[in-house]
Amino acid sequence: MKLWKQTAWLLLCIPLLSALLTGCWDDRELNELGITSGSAYDWEDNEWKATFQVINPSSGASGMGGSGGGSTTSPPFITFTVKGRTIMEAIERTNLTSTREMFFSHSRITVLGESVAKHGINQLIDMFLRKQDARETVYVFLSQDGAGDILDQLMQLTKNQGAGIQLMIEQESRLVSYYPGVRLYELAMALASESGSAVLPEIQLTGKQIMDETGETGRTDLPSRLALGKLGVLKGDKLIGWLSQEQAFGLSFMTGKVNSATLAFPSNPKAGDTPDASFVLQNASTTVRPVWDKDHYIMDIRIKGSGVLSELGSAMDLNDRASITGMEQSIEQKVLELVNNSWTEVRQLGADVTGFAVRIHRSDRKRWKTIEQDKSWDSVFRDIEIRPQVSIKIERTGLSNKSFKSVQQK
């Protein structure tokens, strides 16, 4: 009985003792931290040039969509630019110019300058995956000019510029599908995959002037804005080229990254090639099947989609099934052109941003093992032939079965 009481007492004491072991041994006060919403990296004079965008707590809720307290002249964020032989050395040097320690757990974006992308980004990825408070979920962008300039530009309708750029790429990926939103861990996975290649969207300034004063956001139209530009192609860990907007769109179709999109097309190709109609693609899917043909691979790409007709500029009766079929064929031809043009540029760059290597590895392991042993993927990739097939259905024609032009001609 005595032994039982001692055991019960010991069991009661263990939780109490464990409570003494807990505590905020590494706690940091909020007013001691510089909450970083974005970061940018350039390579200059053989050193890392890092720019950090820190939320300014004294800005309150004033300006740029906010209301209430705070100084109307106080910027919503402050930027720090530092240099170092390593990235962490640059980060630590912010303590020489700031009263707050950089805190990265709330970062939304990171921008890589073209100088860094051509130098190599392996070290940067390693830092993000290794540092405890760094976020591997940040969206990554490229800039053809200085990446730090991107973080200085103010945006209308939002105070937190890092969050604003994040919302911009998420909205684009959801509604337009020209560019994929790429998070840092997705970039790392793509570069570490069999393909060894990745893409990153470009963020750019539309004008030469940087709008970095809060009073300038009161204009109805800014002379310089942030906008998505081209699509950067990385092989290994270095930038090797760019895809245009249309080529990036074709790549989205090849890789099944199209969520929703609007396609402009000629409703009657016999009358001319000028687009006069719009089709909103609401559902899309892509399947890719590798086929070995004698001495090279053929990628059987099947793209299916459906949506609604949203604009029509020619005289046409939509009750006539032949008219619908003709427009569907015109849209299919447009998608085929996008895919073929994109593939021509991708193959010329020699970077497997299509993910074909992954698909071949999964479907033809024996031949892939030989390719891997011979280190011949680059030559195999250059010899790949694509065989795209597109099937588009116009499910709805909107609120009218006739175009307004056909009504006018009566």
Uncertain runs with pLDDT below 50, 5 residues or more?
A: 61-71
How many DSSP-defined strands? 13
Strand percentage, roughly?
25-35%
Structural class: alpha/beta
Overall geometry: globular
Secondary structure: helix percent: 25-40%
Radius of gyration: 27 Å
Counted by DSSP, the helix tally is 13
Q: What is the total number of structural domains?
A: 2
Distance between the termini: 105 Å
Average pLDDT over all residues: 86
Instruction: List SSEs in N-to-C order.
Output: HEEEHEEHHEHHHEEEHEEEHHHHEH
Largest pleated sheet = 6 strands, mixed
Plain-language structure description:
The chain has 410 residues and is an alpha/beta fold. It has two domains: 30-243, no CATH class; 247-410, GMP Synthetase, Chain A, domain 3 (2-Layer Sandwich), CATH 3.30.300.210. It has helices spanning 2-21, 87-92, 114-119, 122-130, 147-152, 161-175, 184-192, 245-254, 321-349, 356-363, 365-374, 377-382, 404-408, and strands spanning 33-44, 47-55, 77-84, 101-103, 109-113, 139-143, 197-205, 226-235, 238-243, 261-265, 277-293, 296-312, 385-396. The strands form three sheets. Strands 1, 2, 3, 4, 5 and 6 form a six-stranded mixed β-sheet that branches. A hairpin with a 2-residue loop joins strand 8 (226-235) and strand 9. Helix 8 packs across helix 9 (321-349). The radius of gyration is 27 Å and the shape is globular. The protein starts with a helix and ends with a helix.
